[in-house]
Request: fold
Amino acid sequence: MNRIILGVLALAGLGYIFLIIWGNGSSDHIDIHKFNLLGDTESSEIGDNLRIPSIFIGRSYFIHNEKQKIIVFRDDDLGPDWSVDSAIYITDLFRSRNVSHVLGIVPANLYGKKLSDDFVLYRYLKSIKEDESIEFALHGYDHSYHEFENIELDGSSESAVSKISAGINCIEDVVGITPVTFVPPYGVYNENTRIALKSTDSVRIMSACQTDIKENRAFKEVDGILYLPTTTYFYNWDKERYNTQEDIISSCNHAFDKYDVCVIVFHHHMFKGDSGNMDPAKVQVLIDVIEWARSEEQDGGAKIMLMKDISGEDLQ
Reply:
């Protein structure tokens, strides 16, 4: 009797699996450990003479599907009179490879010139506004030193609310797109900045530096804001040297292990050499990292994404 009951239960379990597979589509993944079916490569014995047909063993339905890794490329400091030639060069390098990346736009400079005053950059940004591989992020307002570190909330043109609002309006006027991602200059900001962002109708993503990691907000949604801090840099600011391809990939893999996300940040003007022209060796490191990211994506190990396309659900 026990053998009969065991046989019925086993067949019922297999029938349930069939229903899941063919009911939800053959591409769905089922964690094999949930059903305790893992055995030898030909069949799995589950009791006396009852065995799981070898057709199931090793099938994609039974492979545990790990969370999708995410790679983000972000280029900061696209602003008026700020090495526009290198900004266009690096942006076109990504676009020619159809690789998504985020542009950190600085709406004004310290001399009062706004984005709309730089005709070359203004015209270029408008020409690529329909490119779905591009995201326009707000990178502060004038990129003054630690611009948002000790900023007041409201009450003056130098307040967080005023600067963020003016920056959003500037990008809207020039590009016709409302940014949803805020990148504080130098990666630092205070609580007033967070409050000011929450008061906007559009900004829902913060991409800073170590602050969010230290405050346990990294890669989480907190109070309606998704925090996507930088994990990897092309330049080592502590050692004052450029990171190698191996350094960058190693840093990304470390970020994958900890967060499943790697946010790679670089600055277009730092790919120039002493002559003021683009340095082929520095640019080649960027190309090599891009190709590594594309190979990760093609192999199914990661996906290159824009920040605006990442949701809290992607990080759970």
